[in-house]
């Protein structure tokens, strides 16, 4: 794909993600995304033949961005718990930027595909990160809870409380190294 075509494709995907964040997944339409991206519906259809194809590209893009960010954070950390701290930091960043991972999860759930395998691989890595298993589970379940609270709008916590929770999770991932 040419650079211009890939740039247009990326514009469509990023516009669609923003559209979903501003509205919700159920309101996503090809016409709506085309209008927000400033292109014709035919131009959008050149890149994505169906709404399902666009949604699959959105989910793949978000998952790729999350995993790249996770790897970057984990690479910057050292010692036991470095992968877990990378997971905490990428989750903190994503939640602060609108919880894009929730979009990918919703799309994958709607398509009856599962992020379970990828998430289980990540959890397996975290379980071998030099921390107590119960600490890793406590950290991941807390992060899951923050995402679900935001997704379902069930008593979401303030930004300040969220920051304090992440600080405590990072402390847990530093002090609970297994010798």
UniProtKB/TrEMBL annotation:
Q: Which UniProt keywords apply?
A: DNA-binding
The DNA-binding region ranges are: 29-48
Instruction: Say which species the protein is native to.
Output: Lysinibacillus contaminans
Q: Which domain of life is it from?
A: Bacteria
Report the residue ranges that make up the HTH tetR-type domain in this protein.
6-66
What lineage is this protein's organism placed in? Bacteria, Bacillati, Bacillota, Bacilli, Bacillales
Give the protein name, as stated in the record: HTH tetR-type domain-containing protein
Keyword presence, Cell membrane: no
Q: Does the keyword DNA-binding apply?
A: yes
Fetch the Pfam families from UniProt.
TetR_C_28, TetR_N
Q: Please name the InterPro entries in this protein's record.
A: Homeodomain-like_sf (IPR009057), HTH_TetR (IPR001647), Tet_transcr_reg_TetR-rel_C_sf (IPR036271), TetR_CgmR_C (IPR041479)
